[in-house]
Amino acid sequence: MNTTISDIPQRDIYTVSRLVRETRSVLENSFPLIWISGEISNLAQPASGHIYFSLKDEIAQVRCAMFRMKRQRLRFQPENGQQVMLRAKVSLYEARGEFQLIAEHMEPAGEGALRLAFEQLKQKLAAEGLFDAAHKQTIPGMPGQVGIITSPSGAAIRDLLTVLKRRFPALPVVIYPVQVQGEGAAEQMVHMLQLANQRNECDVLILSRGGGSLEDLQAFNDESLARAIHASRIPLVSGIGHEIDFTIADFVADQRAPTPSAAAELVSPDRAAWLRQLHQLGQRLRLIQTSRLRHHQEQLSTLRNRLLRQHPSQRLLQRAQRLDELNQRLRQAQQLYLVNLQHRLEKLWSSLTRLSPQQRIENRRHHYQLFAERLQRAMERRLMDKRTVLNQLARDLHTLSPLNTLSRGYAIVSREEDGHILRASSEVERGDRVNARLSQGSLVCRVEDINPAAKKES
Q1: Is residue 70 domain-resident?
Q2: DSSP secondary structure string, 213-255?
Q3: Coiled-coil stretches, from where to where (predicted)?
Q4: CA distance 295 to 274
């Protein structure tokens, strides 16, 4: 039996690039994102910001790549010999035909993963000087207003408000509500800290939450939060967890308190102590007055004794007159001294009253109300001006609109084949189809005859 060339089946010959490309497609479409654990080896970190490494176990290994955008989200620094878990996509590197994993996420595996990330970040920030005492701000002894960054529904806020009310009820408090654990908590705290600095309405801030595990406190170990605390122009006290709990935020804060309640005591003056001090000053004033009066009385008694010893009647009369004069001056001086002291006391009390946070709050509230009314009037005037301009532009647009021209009986004619707008009869030929757009609807026409344009008169 004879076989012709046409009977031989055609061969489907692959190129190397086609084979690799189709193999990569099969791999990527066959595997979803997977979790895989292993040990890092052959770690390479070029200047591009990507990292390349091998992930191995006792039997096999696979090449891995993590690109810069994903690497920037890591909370720790990968190292050779470290056990990690990857969330990765199975793929193929076409240039060398190598099987590889594209890592989307990486975290230390096993016990102490969070602790390792904590220690690595702590060492990094300490090396940059974020924990240095030279950068710490002084906590004011008598703040005009206190800001609290914490969860509005947690136990910490109740403890803070209870302590502040007990120690100094007149101290105003602003609460910046945030989520203190879970996804997005660190970003919320960074936002509220920046907002507090923008408003600049508080003299000191408290960053706080109740106790919990290392995982519960993980939001306070965030690098962006640490840098926001370091950049804050307002002094910040951290009161996070219990006395044994330490976070990155504690190291960066201007002062750390072992508990939320202790943080409230640090930033608030003690009302009882202030009253005791005022009482002590009053007692000292009375003692000084009594002592000086006794001293003058003793001097007066001495002078009288000396006068009795110097018996001549003339000198006695002169000295008696001088004594009366001195006695009168002494009483006037004492009375004037007491009046001056009373005025000073009243002035100090008036100054203390003027510095009351409540009065400052009322003044600020009045200013804010005036500014709001001015802003409302300005917005109304601006809106009226814009509406006038818009109406004028609408009238101008209607005047210039081609549709307005069409309504006066004109038409726009274009070639049907390419939509070209016709301006001269020479642009078409007999038999061509043209579209004529009218004010309402359009016509499809065929050119039956062409009249050339009339020549202009000389």
Answers
A1: yes
A2: -TTTTGGGG-HHHHHHHHH-SS-EEEEESSTT---HHHHHSSE
A3: none
A4: 32
Question: How long, in residues, is the chain?
Answer: 458
Q: Is residue 418 within 8 Å of residue 409, measured between CB atoms?
A: no
What's the CA gap between 174 and 233, in Å, rounded? Answer: 17
Q: Does residue 265 share a domain with residue 153?
A: yes
Does residue 64 contact residue 58 with C-beta atoms inside 8 Å? no
Range of 403's domain? 398-451
Q: Decide if 61 contacts 54 (C-beta within 8 A).
A: yes
Assess contact for 232 and 191: CB atoms under 8 A. no
Domain CATH number, residue 210: 3.40.50.2300
* Burial class for 258, CB neighbours closer than 10 Å (0-12, 13-18, 19+): middle
Phi, psi dihedral angles at 317 (to 5 degrees): -65, -45
Nearest-CA neighbor of 238 among 314, 140, 352, 149? Answer: 149
In angstroms, rounded to a whole number, what is the distance separating the alpha carbons of residues 53 and 154?
44
- Structure pTM? 0.45
Amino acid at 166: R
Structure tokens at 105: 């996420």
Mean pLDDT by 10 residues, the chain (458 residues): 58 85 85 88 92 92 93 85 89 88 84 72 90 91 92 90 90 93 91 95 93 81 93 94 86 93 90 82 89 89 75 67 83 88 86 74 84 90 91 82 74 85 84 85 86 56
**146: exposed, middle or buried (Cβ count in 10 Å: 0-12, 13-18, 19+):** buried
**Whether residue 264 sits in one domain with residue 122:** yes
CA distance 246 to 211: 11
Angle formed by the axes of helices 185-199 and 223-231, nearest 10°: 10
Integer Cα distance of 149 and 157 in angstroms: 9
